[in-house]
Amino acid sequence: MQIESDDRMPLRTSDDVVRVRQAVRARAVASGFSLVDQTKIVTAASEIARNTVDYGGGGELRIEALRNGQRRGVRLTFSDSGPGIRDIDQAMRDGYTTGNGLGLGLSGAKRLCNEFDIKSTAGSGTTVTIARWT
Amino acid sequence: MAEIPILRIGDCLLVSIQVDMHDRLALALQDDLTQRIVADRARGVMIDISALEIVDSFIGRMLNNIAAMSKVLDAVTVVVGMRPAVAITLVELGLGLTGVRTALNVDKGLALIRRIIDNPERDDADRER
Ligand SMILES: Nc1ncnc2c1ncn2[C@@H]1O[C@H](COP(=O)(O)OP(=O)(O)OP(=O)(O)O)[C@@H](O)[C@H]1O
Ligand SMILES: [Mg+2]
């Protein structure tokens, strides 16, 4: 698997969430994603980015463009050094929220992507990695 | 920060969401709409989202909130112009727009609102099925 590009952007405010959506869209278009695939990864990115800002106290997004033979992919890694998530299984459940959300961000983003990984340690932050392939 | 204009068509309010909405704008829109429904005695609220490239849980929640609050104020909410790719994605995200009726475009949305206002009992019966 090759990495064709590797960029980072800050994720601190809700304006950054809008910028993240635009950057992920541009990357997905450049990687030849269909309109539906673009929409899915941008929506998933919007969910995770908002969590990073709202619960993680802000952090960073890494955007990688991948190639594996004929297939092209976009991998997004969101990391923060916030409070972390004590019970990941619970957080992944549809409808679970500690804010006033719908509790759909994590579980929905997982459904919208081909790869999903979450690592979190209480007290030292959260890293969510998602990827979608053409 | 530009606010989102609310137009009036007869007893309906029309909002076209044209921008990649910032969170503060979404919250301001809910407040503005509540006030206008009361001030204009509106019976219907139509939200045109044809310009939106994505609807995430935040925007979905806003649409549900607007529908719930309009209902309390005796107005019907219809969301029009959802792009097909957005509709497909919403289903997978798991976001049901409960309480929000949808129509293809503004004309069909207005007709739907008219029908519901003129025949509220039938609408309730429709939804229970
Ligand atoms: N980066 C993070 N740091 C700490 N806690 C997090 C983080 N991301 C998610 N969580 C926790 O996981 C819960 C579930 O997140 P999820 O995105 O699924 O739902 P939500 O954000 O509460 O609601 P929605 O996304 O539907 O608006 C959150 O309420 C929060 O408690
Ligand atoms: Mg969330």
Care to describe what's here?
The complex is a heterodimer of chains A (134) and B (129). With 134 residues, chain A is of the alpha+beta class. Chain A has a single domain, classed as Heat Shock Protein 90. Chain A is 37% helix and 34% strand. In chain A, strands 1-2-3-5-4 form a 5-stranded antiparallel beta sheet, covered by helices on one side. In chain A, β2 and β3 form a beta hairpin. In chain A, α2 packs antiparallel against α4. The two termini of chain A are 14 Å apart. Chain B has 129 residues and is of the alpha/beta class. Chain B has one domain: Transcription Regulator spoIIAA (2-Layer Sandwich), CATH 3.30.750.24. Chain B is built from 5 helices and 5 strands. In chain B, α2 links the parallel β3 and β4. The longest helix of chain B has 17 residues. Chain B is globular, with a radius of gyration of 14 Å. The model of chain B has no long low-confidence stretch (mean pLDDT 88). At the A-B interface, α1, α2 and α4 of A face α2 and α3 of B. The complex binds adenosine-5'-triphosphate and magnesium ion (MG). The site of adenosine-5'-triphosphate has 23 residues of chain A, from α2 and α4.
